[in-house]
Structure formats: C-alpha cells, structure tokens
Design goal:
The chain is mainly alpha-helical. Helix content is 68%, strand content 4%.
C-alpha cells in the first residue's frame, strides 16, 4: 500500500492502481511532478469523458488554479475519471470513502505520451508557480564545537515537511554535486568564505541570507527540486551526511546521460534557437549590469538609512546631555529650566525616530535589497551558463570539426592503402564523437531555452519587487511622520512658554 497525502484529500490506506502509476511515469518520465491542464484534458479525452466533465474534475483537484497539478493530485483526478467511466458522477467525498480507487481505461496512450513529453519540453513557468512549489526558511541555530565553533543553520522545507541542521560545508558539498549533475542549468554561487573568521554577527547574517537565496532557487527549480540528492539534503538528519554527499558528488552522471528527453530533444527545439540564444546573451549582458547597479544603489540606500539612524541616535544623546548642562547664566534661570525640560523630551522622542529608522532598515534589508540580490545572482548565473556553454561544448564541436576536415583532406591526397585505412578509422571515430557532441549540444540548447523561461518568470518578479519597495517606503514614512509629529508637541510647548511662537 502506497500512502500519499495530497492537498485535495488524503489517499492514506488506499492502494494506488498500477495503471495510475504507469500514466504518471508516462506523463512525467523524469519525475517532473508537473502535469498541465492541457495534457490532462487530452488524456481524459482519450478516456471517453466529455470535456465539460473533464473540466469539472480538473477544478476539483486544481484548488490553487495553477493550471497544473502534481503526482498526488493526478491520482485523485484519475480516481474521479474512473468514477465517471463507471457511471457515477465525480465526487471527492465519495472517492475518499472508497477503499479502492477505481480502474480506468485510456485509449491511444502513445499519442497522450508524445503530447505530454512535447509539453514538458516546451513548458512555461510563472513566478507565482515557482514560488508556490517550495518555501525554504533558514535561521541561525546554536554553534557546535568546543574549541573551533561551527555555525549551524536550521533549514525548513515546506514541500518536504522537514527541518534539518546544516553547516556551511554541507552546502559546499551539495553545490559540488549540483554543478556536476546539472552542467547546463542556472546555479547561483554560494557565499564566499572569510579569512578573518565567521563569528561576526553581520557576516553570519549576510551568509544566512545568501544561503537562503541559493537553496530557495534550487528548491524551486523544475529540474532540481525533485532530485533525490536535493531531497536528501533537505530531509536527512543522520550523522554521515557529508560522506554520503561526497559519494553522490563522485558517482553522479550529468543530466544528459539520465534525462529521457536528452536523446530526442533535437526534433522539439524551435527553429532559430541558436540565434535566439545569441540575442538573449546580448540582452542579458546589459540587463545584468543594470540590475547589478540597482542592487548597489539599494545597498547604498540601506547603508545611508543605517547611518541616518545612527546620526539621529547621536543627536538624541547630545540633546539629553544638553538638557543636563548648566546654562542658567547663559540663558537665565527661568529660560534655562524651560529649554532643558523640553529639550530632554525632544531628545527622548527623537530616539523613537531612530527606532523607526532601524525598522525601515530591516524592511529594506529583507525586502528591496534581498529581492535585487535574487535577480542579480540569478542573471549572473545565467550569464555564466551561456559563457560556460560557449567555452565548453561549442568549442569542443569546433575543434572536432577541424580535426575531421583535416583528416578528410589527408584522405583525399594519400595513395597509401595502409594510411588510407588508418585515416578512415580516425574519420569513423571522429564521426561518432561528432554525433555525440551534436546530441550534447542540442541538449545544452534545450537547457538554455528552458532556463530562459525560468529567467522570464523571475524577471516578472520585478513588479512585485517594486510594489514591496513602494509599500515599505510608504509605511516607513508614515511611521516616521507619526514619530516627528510627536516631537513637534514639546517643541511647540517650548516655543509658547518662551513667547517666541509665531
């Protein structure tokens, strides 16, 4: 009995029919855990179920209206389809009460399979869809070690319903694995190491934020989020984590050798994809530089706000000192008393202005600055991917083509039988190498094409970024306005008592 808990209902205690599992693996050959509405409706059409009924069933399982469902929700949908085929109206409550999920009959499964695989190759994403696929939280936990303290990070994965403790070196081993496993995918960099120690609170917080952005990207990436090692990293709590991660990094094959799409992707690539990649690369360079500049500006705004808070704090302390300073001879005893009393109140209230400014710093740090860093790191990693592809597979293809041309020229000019035999053997070897390289090149273009869709989805997050930035500033200025209004009361009282109010 396979136990599955889903968002629509619980299938606990129910046996998942083999035809359900087979359909899922046909629809998601690489365990993508992603079945689109279009594919499902085509599937149900071949189950002799009317489209209006198929749409009703879809609405029952796609509760978030994402236009895609996962493996578990697919099983619920297939159960509802089975009910319809059996002469019953689809009903989630009735389905939850049955001890066995109904069998189903699907015609023309090969056609459904081909359509699904084509859909996976041309799959589109939205930022909200990626965001909904996983929520990662990382907090700083207690340090470990008697002499050399190691900072521990608590990692929470909503998708896997797990909480684990990780150290920075664990992330490094995961990164080694991912770069070997997914050479043609976007992968942001981990935060760098420090030569001056990692016990500084500001350094630890900065590293925590960077690790959060890194793991969130990996955890939401359509090709990485369901990878066994990624899930292992997010869920395993045993003591031999690092040795296991090292072994996985040594033994893993890159995606080209394991992705079922790899060997047949050429027929599904859009025409002019090479030119499209070149044009994307040209746009990316300028866009990346602008985002990097805006990130720098955001950081300066944050630092300036911090400095402003420190200055208000300095002024608050100075006003407190001023209120205690003897000045009866300078100002006159009566005036000195009024000035000192109200100055003391103003200084205390300006400390509230400093507090509101610090709160604005927190919003800037976790809002605008964090979001600009997400964009910069993602675009920078995409830029590196394009450069890596050019320096790697493209360069290797050009080199092999030159060797082939050279061998063919030699073959055309030699009259020696033995030499001709050797040259033909080399040409055969180079042809085989060229065929493999062309397949890898096609797959690398497919990966770049797929990654560009993830970039598009994240670029649309710019709207949310600006909305958050604007809302934060409105709230911050509203709070600061209220704090300054409070300051104005003792100021006006002092002006009135000194008879210098306008």
């Amino acid at each position: 009995v396979q136990v599955v808990v889903v968002g629509t209902m619980s299938l606990e205690g129910k046996e998942i029919p083999e035809e359900y599992k087979k359909l899922y693996h046909w629809l998601c050959p690489n365990n993508e855990n992603h079945v689109t509405k279009e594919v499902f409706l085509h599937l149900v059409k071949n189950a002799s179920v009317a489209q209006k009924d198929a749409l009703v069933i879809w609405d029952m399982v796609d509760l978030n209206q994402n236009d895609f469902i996962n493996e578990n929700d697919l099983y619920c949908a297939l159960g509802l389809v089975g009910m319809k085929q059996g002469g019953f109206e689809p009903n989630m409550d009735l389905l939850s009460q049955t001890s066995e999920l109904p069998s189903i009959k699907i015609q023309k499964t090969d056609r459904v399979r081909k359509m699904s695989q084509s859909s996976l190759i041309s799959q589109e994403f939205t930022f909200r869809e990626l965001e909904a696929s996983e929520y990662i939280q990382i907090t700083v936990d207690k340090s470990k070690g008697l002499i050399k303290k190691t900072t521990m990070y608590k990692v929470i994965s909503k998708k896997n319903n797990s909480t684990v403790l990780r150290r920075y070196s664990d992330f490094e081993l995961l990164d080694v694995y991912l770069r070997k496993r997914f050479p043609f995918r976007i992968l942001p960099h981990l935060p760098g190491k420090t030569l001056t120690g990692n016990r500084n609170k500001e350094f630890i917080e900065k590293r925590r934020g960077s690790l959060l952005r890194y793991l969130t990207f990996v955890g939401r990436h359509p090709s990485m989020r369901d990878d066994d090692t990624v899930i292992y990293f997010l869920t395993f709590s045993g003591g031999d984590l690092q040795s296991n991660l090292k072994d996985k990094g040594k033994d893993c094959d890159d995606e080209f050798h394991t992705n079922p799409i790899a060997k047949r992707v050429a027929d599904s690539l859009p025409s002019g994809i090479a030119e499209g990649i070149a044009e994307t690369s040209a746009e990316l360079d300028s866009t990346y530089k602008l985002v990097k500049h805006m990130n720098g500006v955001a950081d300066k705004i944050l630092q300036g706000t911090k400095m402003l808070g420190d200055l208000w704090d300095d002024l608050s302390s100075s006003l407190a000192d001023f209120s205690e300073s003897p000045m009866s001879n300078l100002a006159g005893a009566a005036r000195a008393g009024i000035i000192q009393k109200h100055t003391r109140e103003v200084g205390s209230l300006i400390h509230t202005v400093k507090d509101r400014t610090e709160e604005q710093c927190v919003r800037l740090s976790y809002g605008m600055c964090h979001n600009f860093l997400i964009l910069e790191e993602m675009l920078g990693a995409f830029r590196e991917l394009l450069q890596r592809r050019m320096k790697g597979i493209t360069k290797e293809i050009n080199s092999t083509q030159k060797k082939l041309s050279k061998e063919k020229t030699k073959l055309g000019t030699t009259h020696n039988t033995t030499e001709s035999f050797k040259l033909n053997a080399k040409l055969t070897e180079h042809d085989a190498t060229m065929a493999t390289l062309n397949s890898i090149n096609d797959f690398s273009m497919y990966c770049v094409w797929s990654e560009s869709k993830i970039v598009k989805a994240n670029i649309e997050h710019m709207a949310a970024l600006l909305e958050e930035m604007t809302s934060s500033q409105v709230l911050g200025h509203k709070q600061l306005g209220a704090a300054w209004s409070a300051v104005m009361e003792p100021v006006e009282s002092m002006l009135s008592k000194l008879n210098i109010a306008e």
